[in-house]
Design brief:
about 425 residues; alpha+beta; Beta-Lactamase; Helix Hairpins; Heat Shock Protein 90; 12 strands
Length: about 425
């Protein structure tokens, strides 16, 4: 809702047309998914709103003129006022961007719902309050102060630290007075860029992690190739050992690139599921068979305790991929002569449980365990050939099925990963 002083204002036809155009731009902006397109439309709306508010301020300063017009044609002015108020209210209420207008005294004269949620004032109103009563943020105050001096401010980054951290891009423009003696007020629009900031942070962290993960095996490969080139080729024993290390690191890089491409495809919505009823016991047996050599090498016993008649609804290939990642982790991070057990439960949702008898995971790591490249023991994980993306892939595949994956762990006893799958509709 837009909040304005109680005085009724009649605007000329051109202003009404401009208001209608602003409403159309906002409607288009709510439908367009592109953040860039929404930002451009928001700037156009900002300019239009600035012109409208300036016209409204001029109308306040010249009430006699408007009263004369009203007397000249009373039958036309009242419906115009009503339609203007209704359209302006709907337009501003539909804006996702926070709108705030202050006068020369830095008191709020107009705002919308988005601005109210941003400042969340006590008492529960924005109008007539000074800007310093709403916020102590120096970036906001200085931007509005500059606008009152006639200086337009754009690209002002504003952060709030309430229940959650929010980031805004603030644009403030001056509202010129009629006599040319400075600005009559200032209009500010707060564009919420919190999601963009988070995505940028995730992107930078991802690139940093990928660079680090690729650099480690690549450095080892180059080092041993140089060693071979400088004379180690003649030493047969060292020759085979170096080639084995090169192969191991090259395989690690190949696996990392495959997992990155896989995760990118899943997160980008480019993976199509073909869900169907699956005999879970048989599928688990196939996964165990594929990992039998690795389990034997580590002295791990894998047990399939899934009921023979258990059926779940999922994409068979993707469920096999999830189970392979979880069971393989159970093999890698288990104790010597440990066990990995797979069983299932049925209730409001189907559950597939993968239990191991490893050392367990400290509680402080559980919340972040499914993040990309997050490792509890980085050195051990790399030594065993892990890419740090397996659990992230499991998480996103479970979400793609409309389910989730959870973990519980007890130090010294082991961990239990659970895939939750919904029943078919």
């Amino acid at each position: 809702m837009i909040h304005v002083p109680n005085r009724q204002i009649v605007l000329p036809t051109s202003a009404l047309v401009l208001l209608a155009v602003c409403a159309v731009l906002i409607a288009v902006g709510l439908l367009v998914p592109s953040l860039t397109a929404r930002a451009i439309l928001a700037v156009l709306v900002l300019i239009g709103v600035a012109v409208l508010i300036r016209t409204a301020l001029l109308a306040r300063l010249s009430p006699n003129e408007h009263q004369t017009d009203s007397k000249a044609d009373p039958n036309e002015s009242e419906p115009g006022i009503f339609e203007l108020g209704k359209l302006l209210d709907a337009t501003m209420s539909g804006m996702r961007e926070g709108l705030l207008v202050v006068n020369r005294d830095m008191r709020v004269v107009a705002s919308n719902n988005a601005a109210y949620r941003l400042f969340n004032p006590t008492p529960r109103r924005l109008e007539s309050q000074r800007l310093t009563e709403l916020t102590r943020n120096p970036a906001i105050y200085s931007a509005f102060l500059d606008a009152l001096k006639g200086i337009e401010r754009t690209g002002v980054k504003v952060e709030t630290h309430g229940p959650e951290r929010l980031v805004f891009d603030l644009r403030v423009v001056p509202l010129a007075s009629t006599n040319g003696a400075g600005a009559e007020g200032a209009l500010g629009v707060f564009f919420d860029i919190t999601r963009i900031e988070r995505l940028e942070s995730v992107r930078q962290e991802f690139l940093s992690n990928v660079s680090h993960e690729l650099r480690t095996p690549l450095t080892a490969i180059l080092a041993f190739v140089e060693t071979l080139e400088t004379g180690a080729m003649e030493d047969q024993e060292s020759n085979h050992r170096f080639l084995s290390i090169i192969r191991k690191n090259a395989s690690r890089m190949h696996g990392l690139i495959d997992d990155i491409l896989e995760l990118t495809a899943i997160e980008g919505g480019n993976v199509q599921l073909r869900s169907a009823p699956i005999e879970l016991h048989a599928l688990v047996n196939e996964v165990i068979s594929s990992l039998a050599t690795k389990a034997f090498a580590n002295g791990i016993v894998i047990t399939n305790n899934v009921a023979p008649d258990a059926v779940v609804h999922a994409d068979a290939r993707r469920l096999e991929q999830m189970l392979t990642n979880l069971i393989e982790n159970g093999i890698k991070f288990n104790r010597e002569k440990g066990q990995v057990t797979i069983r299932s439960e049925s209730g409001t949702r189907d559950k597939i449980l993968v239990e191991d008898t490893g050392e367990g995971i400290p509680a402080q790591h559980l919340e972040r365990l499914f993040e990309r490249f997050y490792r509890v023991d980085r050195a051990r994980s790399r030594e065993m050939g892990g890419t740090g993306l397996g659990l992230a892939i499991v998480k996103h595949l479970a979400l793609l099925h409309g389910g989730e994956v959870t973990v519980t762990s007890e130090l010294g006893k082991g961990s239990t990963f659970v895939i939750h799958l919904p029943h078919p509709v």
